[in-house]
Design brief:
CATH superfamily of one domain: Histidine kinase-like ATPase, C-terminal domain
Structural class: alpha+beta
CATH class of one domain: Alpha Beta
Mean pLDDT: 79
Shape: rod-shaped
Number of strands: 18
Radius of gyration: 61 Å
Distance between the termini: 43 Å
Low-confidence stretches: 1-9, 510-515, 560-574
Helix content: 40-55%
C-alpha cells in the first residue's frame, strides 16, 4: 500500500468511546439541573412541614391550656361567690328561709343555683325550688360534700345527675363551720352544658376535637361530634393523663390520632384535644403530590424543550456536515444562517475556507499551466544557454563551467520566485536571478538600475513570471538572440506609481513582433489586472520597449491582493 493511502483511510472509532446524540447530553444536563432542585425542594418541604407541625403543636397545646385556664376561672368565680355567701348573716344565724330569698333574688335568670347541706349531707335549702323548712333528700354527691366539709378549701365535684333537675350538673362545694345550724356545706350548682361556651371560646383548627372530662372519665362538655355530656370518655384513661407540653400519638377507635391534655389546677377535670394524624400530615402529602405533579409537568416541558433544541442543533450540525462534505469534494460552499451562533460561526469559517480553497485551486491550476509552459521554455532557454556558452568557450571544461553556472542561476531564480518572506523580495535581486541564466547582469550587455524596493509575494511572483517571459523572448527574438544585443531594465518611483521599463536593443528589427502566446497573456493579463498596472509595448528601430506603470500599493509587502491570480488563455509557445 502506498504511504499516501494511510492518510486517506477513515479513522476508526475508538472502542472505548461511544458516540451519542446531542439529545442524550441535553437530557443529562437537564437531569443534573432538575434532580438536585427537586431533592432540595423535597427537603425544604419536609423541613417546612416539620416547622408547621411544631407550630400547630404549640397552637393546640396553648389552646388547650387556655381552655383549662378559662375553666379554672369559672371555678374561681364560683368559689368567690361561695366565700361571699359563707359570711351571710342569714346563713350564720340559721335562717334558711331568709338566706333562700336572698340567693334566689341574686341568682335569678343566671342558670346557677345555691344549696345548703347539713353535716349528714341532706339538703336543707336549694334555690332550685321554693323554700321548704326542714331536712330534705340526700345529696347526689355525698362523697364530695364530705370532702368539702372536712377541708378548708372549695372542692369542685365531678359531673353528677341532679336529684331535682334530673340533668347533668357540676358543683363547687365549700364547708362552713360554726353556724347556728351547725357545720354545713354551701354549694354552687350549675348545669354542665353551661361550660360549653367556655370550652368552645378558644376555637381549635378544623378537624380537631376537644372535650372537658371529669375525674371519673365522663364527658362534661365537648365540641360537636366529640361526644355528649355524660358519655364515658373512651379515648384514654383520664386518671393517667397529665398535662403535656407536646402532643402524643394514641390509637382512637382504630385510628392513629394526636392527643394533647391539660389538667385543671382547681379540680380533677381535664381538657383533652385530639385529631387524626392525617389531619396534620395531609398538608405534607398534598404538598408532595403537588410537587410531584409540578415536577412531572416541568419534566415534560423540559423534555419538549430538549427535543426542540436537539432538533435545531441536529439540523444545524447536519447542515455543517453537508457543507463539509461539499468542501471535501472541492465544491463551492457558501456561509449559511443558523439559529445557533457558534454553528453559524463555523459555517462562516467553512465558507471562507471554501473561497480560499477555490482561489488556491485556481492559482494552482494557473501555476501548473505556467509550470508546463515554463518547462517547455526552459528547454529552449537551456538550448540557447548551451549555444551562447559554446560560442564563447574555447575548451570543453570552460563550456561545462559556464553552462553549469547558468543552470544553477536558473534554479536559484525559481527558488526566489517561490519565496514568500515577511520582509518581501528585493526587486533588483529578483531581476538579476531571472536574467543571469540568460546573460550575466554584471556584463556589458545587461543593465539593471533602480532604487531599493521590496515586493510582496504575489507581486514578486507576477513580475518574476513577466521577467522570465521577456527574457525568454529576448533569447528567441530580441537582445539575447545575437551577440550584439543589449538589455536595460530600470524603474523609478513617481508619487504613488512605479515606472518599470524593459528596453531591448538588438539585431532583431524593432518591427519584428512574435506571435501572441502565453507570455503575452502573462504580461497583459496578470501584470495589468492582478497588479492594477498599465502595460504598453513600443517598437523602436533598434529594438522593443515594454513600459509598466504599477501602483506602489500593489507592490508593498504589507499589501494583500484582493483577487486570485488569473491565468491567460493561451498556452502555446512563443
Amino acid at each position: 500500500m502506498a504511504d499516501g493511502a494511510v492518510a486517506t483511510e477513515p479513522r476508526k472509532k475508538s472502542r472505548n468511546r461511544v458516540a451519542r446524540p446531542i439529545a442524550v447530553y441535553l437530557f443529562v444536563l437537564a437531569l443534573v439541573a432538575l434532580v438536585p432542585a427537586f431533592i432540595f425542594s423535597a427537603v425544604l418541604l419536609q423541613r417546612n412541614n416539620e416547622a408547621q407541625e411544631r407550630l400547630v403543636e404549640a397552637l393546640i397545646t396553648g389552646t388547650a391550656r387556655s381552655i383549662v385556664q378559662s375553666v379554672d376561672r369559672e371555678i374561681n368565680a364560683n368559689t368567690t361567690t361561695l366565700k361571699v355567701l359563707s359570711a351571710n348573716p342569714a346563713l350564720l344565724s340559721g335562717d334558711m328561709g331568709a338566706f333562700h330569698q336572698q340567693v334566689t333574688d341574686a341568682l335569678a335568670d343566671t342558670g346557677s343555683y345555691i344549696f345548703v347541706l347539713d353535716d349528714e349531707m341532706h339538703t336543707v335549702m336549694t334555690s332550685r325550688q321554693a323554700y321548704v323548712a326542714g331536712r330534705q333528700g340526700l345529696s347526689a354527691d355525698v362523697e364530695t360534700g364530705r370532702l368539702a366539709l372536712a377541708s378548708d378549701i372549695p372542692i369542685a365535684s365531678n359531673m353528677i345527675r341532679g336529684v331535682i333537675s334530673q340533668e347533668y350538673v357540676v358543683n363547687v362545694l365549700l364547708g362552713v363551720r360554726g353556724t347556728a345550724a351547725g357545720d354545713v356545706v354551701l354549694g354552687f350548682n350549675r348545669a354542665a352544658s353551661q361550660l360549653a361556651p367556655v370550652l368552645l371560646a378558644n376555637r381549635l383548627p378544623n378537624g380537631w376535637n376537644v372535650a372537658l372530662v371529669d375525674g371519673k372519665g365522663h364527658v362534661v362538655v365537648a365540641s360537636p361530634g366529640a361526644g355528649q355530656t355524660g358519655d364515658t370518655f373512651g379515648l384514654s384513661n383520664v386518671a393517667e393523663m397529665s398535662s403535656t407540653t407536646e402532643w402524643r400519638q394514641l390509637d382512637v377507635n382504630g385510628q392513629s390520632s394526636l392527643v394533647v391534655a391539660q389538667r385543671s389546677l382547681l379540680s380533677d377535670w381535664t381538657v383533652v384535644g385530639w385529631a387524626p394524624v392525617d389531619i396534620v400530615t395531609r398538608p405534607l402529602a398534598d404538598a408532595f403530590w403537588s410537587l410531584l405533579a409540578g415536577g412531572v409537568l416541568l419534566a415534560a416541558l423540559v423534555v419538549l424543550v430538549v427535543y426542540w433544541v436537539s432538533l435545531a442543533i441536529g439540523r444545524s450540525v447536519h447542515g455543517l456536515e453537508a457543507d463539509a462534505k461539499r468542501l471535501g469534494a472541492g465544491q463551492p460552499v457558501e456561509a449559511r444562517s443558523f439559529p445557533i451562533a457558534e454553528i453559524e460561526t463555523v459555517s462562516m469559517a467553512l465558507g471562507d475556507a471554501s473561497r480560499r480553497r477555490q482561489a488556491a485551486e485556481t492559482e494552482v491550476r494557473f501555476l501548473m499551466r505556467e509550470l508546463a509552459h515554463r518547462s517547455k521554455n526552459q528547454m529552449t532557454v537551456i538550448a540557447a544557454m548551451a549555444k551562447q556558452t559554446a560560442r564563447g568557450a574555447e575548451t570543453v571544461p570552460e563550456f561545462v563551467s559556464s553552462f553549469e553556472k547558468r543552470i544553477f542561476g536558473l534554479a536559484r531564480s525559481t527558488d526566489l520566485l517561490l519565496a514568500h518572506g515577511v520582509a518581501g523580495v528585493d526587486l533588483r535581486e529578483l531581476m538579476v536571478s531571472h536574467l543571469d541564466p540568460f546573460c550575466p547582469v554584471d556584463g556589458d550587455r545587461v543593465s539593471v538600475e533602480g532604487p531599493g524596493m521590496r515586493l510582496n509575494g504575489q507581486a514578486a511572483q507576477i513580475l518574476g513570471m513577466a521577467a522570465h517571459e521577456l527574457a525568454t523572448n529576448a533569447v528567441k527574438y530580441g537582445a539575447f538572440a545575437s551577440e550584439g544585443g543589449r538589455l536595460k531594465v530600470s524603474w523609478t518611483r513617481q508619487d504613488d506609481t512605479i515606472a518599470f521599463v524593459w528596453r531591448e536593443i538588438g539585431a532583431v528589427p524593432g518591427t519584428a513582433t512574435p506571435r501572441r502566446g502565453f507570455g503575452t497573456t502573462v504580461l497583459e493579463n496578470m501584470v495589468g489586472r492582478s497588479l492594477g498596472a498599465e502595460v504598453k509595448r513600443e517598437s523602436h528601430p533598434d529594438g522593443i520597449e515594454w513600459r509598466f506603470s504599477i501602483p506602489v500599493a500593489a507592490l508593498d509587502p504589507a499589501y494583500v491582493a484582493g483577487g486570485a491570480i488569473g491565468g491567460g488563455t493561451g498556452t502555446a509557445d512563443k
